[in-house]
Amino acid sequence: MIPTETQIRAMHREAAPSREAFASVWTHCRIVWSIASQLITSRGAHAASGGVPDLDVDLVRAGCLLHDIGVHRLAADDPYVRHGVLGEELLRDLGLPEVLSRFCSHHTGVGITAADVTAQGLPLPVADYLAETAEERIVMYADKFHSKSTPPSFVTSDTFVAAVSRFGADKPARFDALTREFGQPNLTPLVCEFGHSVR
User: Fold this and answer.
1) Number of CB atoms found within 10 A of residue 185's CB
2) Regarding beta strands 197-198 and 146-147, do their DSSP bridges make them parallel or antiparallel, or are they unpaired?
3) In 3D, which of 95, 97, 119, 107 has the Cα closest to residue 168?
């Protein structure tokens, strides 16, 4: 079963080490869902011409709202890249199925390969952490347009591509493929709604 938004919010509240942490992560997850929802609506309008398979919207919603729950388990000295595997562990501990826990460990950047883990010396078990389903891909993609930085901000495609390029020449190409698959979000209404700047 896919948990409701109310149930997922309660999971965040239970896992969060502070009110501030809860507010930061939960707001970000809600924004990622707003972006994904917008992309799904736009994608649906063009599905007839593109022959794009349907997405499980409830699964995407849950994935967006759960993907960063592992941030709550990061210790002060933990590298941020570990938040995905920590989130996957947390959801498994809560008895959620793999189809949900994978959103945590398979959304970082534009995907992390076993080769990336080894070459970059990442503090992760050596494995591929790639978004494989359309639902996983849209959650990963929507996540790229908002940052929990201090202060939080929306992120343009150009800004993200410039940042991700340092992790390998293949990373911008992966982002371009996601853009072709899902289109560009309109961040303007979200900027107005949440009051975060754009960088």
Assistant:
1) 22
2) unpaired
3) 119
Please compute the mean of the pLDDT values over residues 165-194 and round it to a whole number: 95
| Domains in the chain with CATH codes | 5-144 (1.10.3210)
Token pair belonging to 109: 């950047």
Token couple for 114: 């076993």
**Buried/exposed code over 65-94 (b: 16+ C-beta within 10 A; e: otherwise):** bbbbbbbbbbeeeeeebbbbbbbbebbeee
DSSP 51: T
Of the candidate ranges 45-49, 58-62, 98-102, 135-139, the one whose mean pLDDT is the lowest: 45-49
* Contacts for 17-25: CB closer than 8 Å, 24+ residues apart: 17/72, 21/71, 21/72, 22/72, 24/148, 24/152, 25/68, 25/69, 25/71, 25/72, 25/148
Which amino acid is located at 107 in the chain?
H
As a dihedral over the C-alpha atoms of residue 114, residue 33, residue 158, residue 110, rounded to 10 degrees, the angle is 10
pTM above 0.85, yes or no: yes
Beta strand residue intervals within the chain, DSSP E? 146-147, 153-154, 197-198
The set of residues, in sequence order, having a beta carbon less than 8 Å from that of 130 and lying 6+ positions away, is 106, 111, 112, 113
Please provide the average confidence, as pLDDT, over all residues in the chain: 94
